[in-house]
């Protein structure tokens, strides 16, 4: 279908604000482009609907990346949610979005009516967004696409804290972000990062958890070198 | 449902972890038990505004004053009222227009240390009860109320402190208290004198004419909040948002730098041993002295900066002499300019008097400006006569202070420049 490579938008890797025309579709026929968060089609143009950095994943995926406290659910994101209420068919989960998300009681590996998990209110859950649109509550699942548990489910113990969505994206990026790399060299801990800006950390000793969480919170606006220096500094205080 | 949905609740994990860490004397933000978070006091560009940042908590305060009739039972005292606004932006749990439980507690807290509204205030949050009514209980009076009286029984200053919660990161009480104190310390009310035909008329002087007067603050009651965990045997200072959600009880001690306890507030929660409270009070008095010095430092640097600005203006006023006379000359011919200058003049009589002699004093050396100044002089005399000695002293001060001279001239100078270009 695609005969020639479309010219990438001039805004790629630049900051856009709502209303910016990112792409002009009239110039590109017979091409498929995929739009992610923060973009929408307006007649023959693609416009930004949120402010942030325009990203392009070759060949044709565009989205706007921003850092905020609020989370807009989108499909295939892994998130950390808090169980708020239990209904016969669904758990109601707070994922920092505009609406509570539904987690069907059967959306667990090998889930049947007989073995519905019991989650008390306030349980922390690592889940995947499977449905997300503006008019319905988002839907979560604790299985990967193949129906396996794949680390999803309840997170026990540990400590959860909130950061921005940009921060959690940085933590998930590869190569490993400098904070986690520096911390991982000296300490052993477990970490789960949700794209909704929630981070869960667990370690045997509480002071390790506190150190790791504070290092992550503080690294938000630091460069790679500064992040390493900050971690060094914190580790020295610990010993 | 909607309210429930908005309220943030800690996860089981956080709850357990915070408590477990506290058992071994660790706090989740890495602080020691009796450490405050970093305190940043920013004083606004204008007098009587402040913004306080305590960790993630941010509170803005601004102070205003107006002349009102005093309460009948206290004819010779001004009033001080504190209003707190909880924006849903600061915390989704705050509902616009409806103060929640914490809001009432907080709204009452700064009051209770300034003029002690105590429980009365709590009740007065009901919409149909007069919010401003003070309880007769006034134990620690930080702001001198009698100095706010202008004419006993007729006119007193009503000082109003507006607190805006910008971000709720926990311990709003302490942050709001510091913000209110900092704003009150820099607040200046316009000077006013009593005169007029019946000797009962109150004249409010323009701040550019007479330097406004700061409030008399006898002492600074500092709120220091402690949170209790476990069975009241784990105590931490300055709880964060998360700690507040987990804590078993809270106590706010309001204490000044001399160690005088002004108020203690403990609304429900776990019982605490009297020994623990005594220990908390000792810690609070140390912290209060520390915070008082921080507020004073911020206020001092603000006032010196403000004073320096006044000094710097002086040399600028020299070349402006020429412009002043020019403006007054043009004033006669240019109708448009005249209306502009008139609208710029404040309606108060006194301001007119004192502004007009200002160019006169400077212009007296310039011969060509003589006729203009003459007329203004006459006007000044005719209006100032009823005030008698008052009006004269006004003029005398005018000549004495170069700052107000310059201030009176500056807008005209600017206007002149604009009209020259167009």
TrEMBL record, chain A:
Coiled coil: none annotated. It is found in: Cytoplasm; Nucleus, Nucleolus. GO terms for molecular function: RNA binding. Keywords: Cytoplasm, Exosome, Nucleus, RNA-binding, rRNA processing. Signal peptide: none annotated. One of its GO terms (cellular component) is cytoplasmic exosome (RNase complex). Residues 33-70 form the Exosome complex exonuclease Rrp40 N-terminal domain. CDD domains: KH-I_Rrp40, S1_Rrp40. Gene3D superfamilies: 2.40.50.100, K Homology domain, type 1, Nucleic acid-binding proteins. Its main location: cytoplasm. Residues 158-206 form the K Homology domain. One of its GO terms (biological process) is CUT catabolic process. It comes from the Eukaryota. Belongs to the RRP40 family. This is Ribosomal RNA-processing protein 40.
Automatic annotation (TrEMBL), chain B:
Pfam families: RNase_PH, RNase_PH_C. CDD domains: RNase_PH_RRP45. Residues 35-190, 219-285 form the Exoribonuclease phosphorolytic domain. Keywords: Cytoplasm, Nucleus, RNA-binding. GO terms for cellular component: cytoplasmic exosome (RNase complex); nuclear exosome (RNase complex). Residues 325-422 are annotated as: Disordered. The keyword NADP does not apply. Residues 338-354, 372-387 have a biased composition (Polar residues). It is found in: Cytoplasm; Nucleus. The keyword RNA-binding applies. Residues 411-422 have a biased composition (Basic residues). Its main location: cytoplasm. GO terms for molecular function: mRNA 3'-UTR AU-rich region binding. GO terms for biological process: exonucleolytic trimming to generate mature 3'-end of 5.8S rRNA from tricistronic rRNA transcript (SSU-rRNA, 5.8S rRNA, LSU-rRNA); nuclear mRNA surveillance; nuclear polyadenylation-dependent rRNA catabolic process; rRNA catabolic process; TRAMP-dependent tRNA surveillance pathway; U1 snRNA 3'-end processing; U4 snRNA 3'-end processing; U5 snRNA 3'-end processing. PANTHER family: EXOSOME COMPLEX COMPONENT RRP45 (PTHR11097:SF14), EXOSOME COMPLEX EXONUCLEASE RIBOSOMAL RNA PROCESSING PROTEIN (PTHR11097). Belongs to the RNase PH family. This is Protein ECERIFERUM 7.
């Amino acid at each position: 279908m695609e005969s020639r490579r479309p010219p990438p938008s001039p805004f790629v890797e630049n900051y856009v604000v709502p209303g910016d025309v990112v792409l002009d579709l009239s110039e590109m026929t017979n091409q498929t482009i995929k739009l992610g968060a923060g973009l929408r089609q307006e007649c023959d143009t693609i416009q930004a609907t949120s402010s942030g950095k325009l990203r392009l994943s070759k060949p044709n995926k565009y989205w706007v990346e921003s850092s905020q406290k609020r989370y807009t659910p989108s499909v295939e994101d892994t998130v950390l949610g808090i169980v708020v209420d239990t209904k016969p068919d669904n758990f109601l989960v707070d994922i920092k979005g505009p609406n509570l998300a539904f987690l069907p009681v059967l959306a667990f590996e090998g889930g049947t009516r007989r073995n519905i998990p019991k989650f008390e209110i306030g349980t922390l859950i690592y889940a995947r967004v499977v449905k997300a649109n503006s008019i319905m509550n988002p839907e979560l699942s604790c299985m990967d696409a193949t129906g396996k548990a794949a680390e999803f489910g309840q997170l026990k113990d540990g400590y959860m804290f909130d950061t921005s969505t940009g921060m959690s994206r940085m933590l998930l990026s590869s190569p490993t972000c400098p904070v986690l790399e520096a911390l991982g060299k000296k300490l052993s801990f477990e970490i789960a990062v949700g794209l909704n800006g929630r981070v869960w950390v667990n370690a045997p000793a509480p002071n390790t958890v506190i150190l790791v969480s504070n290092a992550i919170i503080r690294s938000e606006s630091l460069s790679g070198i500064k992040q390493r220096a900050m971690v060094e500094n914190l580790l020295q205080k610990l010993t | 449902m909607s309210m429930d949905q908005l309220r943030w609740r800690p996860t089981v994990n956080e709850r357990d972890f915070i408590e477990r860490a506290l058992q071994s004397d660790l706090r989740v933000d890495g602080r020691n038990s009796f450490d405050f978070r970093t305190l940043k006091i920013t004083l606004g560009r204008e007098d009587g505004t402040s913004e306080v940042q305590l960790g993630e908590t941010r509170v803005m305060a601004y102070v205003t004053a107006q002349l009102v009739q005093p309460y009948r039972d206290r004819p010779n005292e001004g009033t001080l009222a504190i209003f707190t606004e909880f924006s849903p932006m600061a915390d989704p749990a705050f509902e616009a227009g409806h103060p929640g439980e914490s809001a009432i507690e907080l709204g009452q807290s700064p009051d209770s240390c300034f003029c002690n509204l105590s429980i009365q205030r709590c009740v007065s949050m009901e919409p149909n009860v007069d919010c401003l009514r003070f309880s007769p209980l006034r134990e620690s009076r930080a702001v001198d109320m009698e100095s706010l009286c202008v004419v006993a029984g007729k006119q007193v200053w009503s000082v109003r402190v507006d607190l805006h919660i910008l971000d709720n990161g926990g311990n709003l009480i302490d942050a709001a208290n510091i913000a209110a104190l900092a704003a009150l310390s820099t607040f200046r009310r316009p000077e006013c004198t009593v005169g007029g035909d019946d000797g009962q008329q109150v004249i409010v002087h323009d701040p550019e004419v007479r330097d406004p007067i700061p409030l008399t603050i006898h002492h600074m009651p500092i709120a220091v909040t402690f949170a209790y965990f476990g069975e009241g045997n784990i105590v931490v200072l300055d709880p964060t948002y998360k700690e507040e959600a987990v804590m078993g009880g809270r106590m706010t001690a309001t204490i000044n730098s001399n160690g005088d306890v002004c108020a203690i507030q403990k609304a429900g929660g776990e019982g605490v041993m009297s020994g623990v409270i005594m220990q908390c009070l000792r810690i609070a008095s140390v912290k209060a002295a520390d915070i008082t010095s921080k507020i004073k430092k911020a206020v001092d640097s603000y006032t010196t900066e403000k004073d320096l600005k006044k000094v710097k203006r002086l040399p600028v006023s020299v070349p402006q002499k020429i412009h002043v006379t020019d403006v007054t000359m043009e004033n006669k011919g240019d109708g448009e300019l005249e209306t502009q200058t008139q609208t710029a003049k404040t309606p108060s009589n006194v301001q007119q008097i004192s502004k007009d002699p200002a160019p006169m004093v400077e212009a007296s050396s310039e011969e060509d400006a003589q006729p203009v100044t003459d007329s203004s002089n006459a006007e000044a005399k005719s209006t100032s006569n009823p005030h008698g000695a008052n009006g004269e002293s006004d003029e005398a001060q005018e000549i004495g202070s170069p700052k107000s001279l310059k201030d009176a001239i500056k807008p005209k100078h600017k206007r002149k420049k604009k009209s020259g270009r167009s």
